[in-house]
Write a structure and sequence with these properties.
The chain contains 15 helices and 18 strands. By secondary structure, it is of the alpha+beta class. A hairpin with a 2-residue loop joins strand 1 and strand 2. The chain binds histidyl-adenosine monophosphate.
Length: about 425
């Protein structure tokens, strides 16, 4: 029978890093390092953690993100069980809004700042930086129209990158205007592109029918030339949205965040109005987006709320962040290693090793020993592989006399230590 393998576009995170095709999969210590930095920064922003299910009703995602988007039309892992349609969440914004409405979090007063870290699923063609199961962290600020909340989501994402030592990124921003701006702009785009349709690729020609705004995302050189003469969204937005946009830019400038205005940044999810933004890293190659987000004041009513709940947020890919950390040489993180590895000479006294490990563990130390009856040389090799700080070498006589050899793996020095003082000696060097 064939051996089972993880599904393409998904991967295991192991205690040690490894390569899989062109991907470098970081050890779990790097993931934890990132998650801890996210939590530290989120706490500084007064954000509270929310955990929503991986499974959501398909209808929530379809209505929230929009039927004509690539995510909903092509990339959902969706299935039916009985009379219910389920989807593995492709993102977390719509689920967070669902939870906000379901639990009436508005009742708790004020604006809610909610953050999350967790897996998402999209049935995309797997490639470097693009996976079928990937991980996002994000912040959603729900209940405020204030332009400071838009600027705050951007500075929060950047602060996570800065916290981790990344310095090189580009922030692109745009405003989509209010609910009425987009249809007007769509029409203007159609008026511009329809007479040029024979110069468009098949994909873009189809988008004329389904979602003309997506033509703005084209990577095709000839189409990018055509875009230079295309109408610009900012010319179609309402005065209030324009003021809001100016205010977001002013706040960013006040705190020294530089950004590039990109009139064609519409993003691939339909729930946005007003601010949209993306944060890119040049080191990432084709999949350059580290994070994306924007304002989504209409999402609440799309998913069933009678009241409009203004909101803004961002989400960032953890895999891409780790790729950027690797490229910047910032992914060297100490992995957990045992305080001591107990080596048994000639495999004597297995019971003593078991109970000594337990009592050292009870004193708060991390202890390992061999479970396969291997030679002393093999046990030492294993201690090395696990990067143990100390090796306790115990032979029959040592155990009887109550004194064992303690080897400090950092400098190879060895001393005799009374068994009673082992935990104190190993523990003392911890701090
Ligand atoms: P998004 O742009 O679809 O936005 O995803 C955000 C980030 O998730 C991307 O910039 C990228 O780093 C990462 N990402 C997306 N798809 C993949 C994939 N297949 N493989 C690896 N990484 C990926 C959203 O999801 C919105 N919910 C953002 C948001 C929050 N808007 C408002 N609040």
């Amino acid at each position: 029978m064939n051996q089972f393998k993880s599904i393409p576009g998904t991967f295991d995170v192991l205690p040690r890093g490894y390569t899989s095709g062109s991907d470098v999969i970081a050890p779990v210590s790097v993931w934890r390092h990132v998650e801890e930095a996210v939590r530290r920064v989120m706490v500084r922003y007064g954000a509270e953690e929310i955990r929503t299910p991986i499974l959501e009703p398909t209808e929530l995602i379809a209505r929230g993100i929009g039927q004509s988007t690539d995510i909903v039309s092509k990339e959902m892992f969706a299935f039916e069980r009985g009379s219910t349609n389920y989807v593995l969440r492709p993102e977390v914004t719509a689920p967070v809004m669902r939870a906000f409405l379901q639990h009436n979090l508005a009742q708790q007063g004020g604006t809610q700042r909610l953050f999350y870290i967790g897996p998402c699923f999209r049935a995309e063609r797997p490639q470097k930086g693009r996976y079928r199961q990937f991980h996002q962290f994000g912040l959603e600020i729900i209940g405020s129209e204030d332009a400071r909340s838009d600027a705050e989501t951007i500075t929060c994402a950047l602060d996570v990158y800065l916290e981790l030592g990344l310095r090189e990124f580009t922030v692109r921003i745009n405003s989509l205007g209010d609910r009425d701006s987009r249809p007007k702009y769509k029409q203007a785009l159609l008026d511009y592109f329809l007479p040029l349709s024979d110069q468009l690729s098949e994909v873009s020609r189809n988008r004329l029918d389904t979602n003309p705004l997506r033509i703005l995302d084209t990577k095709n050189e000839r189409e990018r030339e055509l875009l230079k003469g295309a109408p610009i969204l900012l010319d179609f937005i309402d005065d209030e949205s324009r003021q809001h946009y100016d205010s977001v830019k002013e706040h960013l400038t006040e705190v020294g965040v530089s950004f590039v205005e990109d009139p064609f940044l519409v993003r691939g999810l339909d729930y946005y109005s007003r601010t949209t933004f993306e944060i890119e890293s040049a080191v990432l190659g084709a999949q350059s987006a580290l994070a994306g987000g924007g304002r989504y004041d209409m999402l609440s009513s799309e998913v069933g709320s009678k009241k409009i709940v203004p909101a803004v947020g961002f989400a960032a890919g953890i895999e891409r962040l780790i790729m950027a950390l690797n490229a910047a040489g910032k992914a060297d993180v100490d992995s957990d290693c045992p305080d001591a590895f107990i080596v048994s000479v000639d495999n004597v006294a297995p019971g003593w090793i078991f109970s000594t490990a337990k009592s050292l563990r009870d004193s708060g130390l991390s202890i390992c020993y061999d479970l396969q009856g291997r030679s002393m040389k093999a046990q030492m090799r294993e201690a090395n592989r696990q990067n143990a700080r100390y090796v306790v070498i115990a032979g029959e006589e040592d155990i009887t006399s109550g004194v064992v050899q303690l080897k400090d793996m950092s400098d190879g020095s060895q001393e005799e230590v009374s068994i009673e003082l082992l935990s104190k000696t190993i523990g003392a060097s911890q701090s």
